[in-house]
């Protein structure tokens, strides 16, 4: 039995929806521009180092005595959820960040049955469902990225004074830390628990966690470093 979880709701348990055939999962397309130059063989390539969104098509069916009411509930759920986590039952340890992209047509098959297609527009990568904070207290700790592409973590640094944090040799400097700073590598932003801007205390390049080994080091008065890793897969 194939189903999916979207915005915290289970398609089968909450709405009686089944996926009738396993959807095809495409890999993301890398953004590369090609420039043709007269008289030159081949093309010049400009690789942006980024990926395009993907589309996943789910063919679904539902059987219910109150089919019209159930369709109304399904429509409200899918469209009111906006961009949310999407988890398929055949890979329930990974999630997509997705949004319904089509106008859904419910085709009546029998008196109490309907078939329909849901098209999900998804961000390029799969993410770990269990995205737990990793606490590091030992300088020089090796953190292993199990994904297939670098991740953009959220890093919580606890300490005081001037601190240098180094990840795989990439140094970032934090000046005049009083207690804690949150370094958000996805948003390229630094702030505290109250979302007060702390970018003035930060200098350097926002780090990434590459696939495989990542050495976490620091100098200065650091009590601990917490990392929300945001592991992801192509």
Automatic annotation (TrEMBL):
Query: Coiled-coil region(s) at which residues?
Result: none
Pfam families membership: Sipho_tail
| Residue spans crossing the bilayer | none
| Residues of the Siphovirus-type tail component RIFT-related domain | 26-122
Q: Which NCBIfam families match?
A: phi3626_gp14_N
Protein name in UniProt: Putative phage tail component, N-terminal domain-containing protein
Name the source organism: Caloramator proteoclasticus DSM 10124
- Origin organism lineage: Bacteria, Bacillati, Bacillota, Clostridia, Eubacteriales
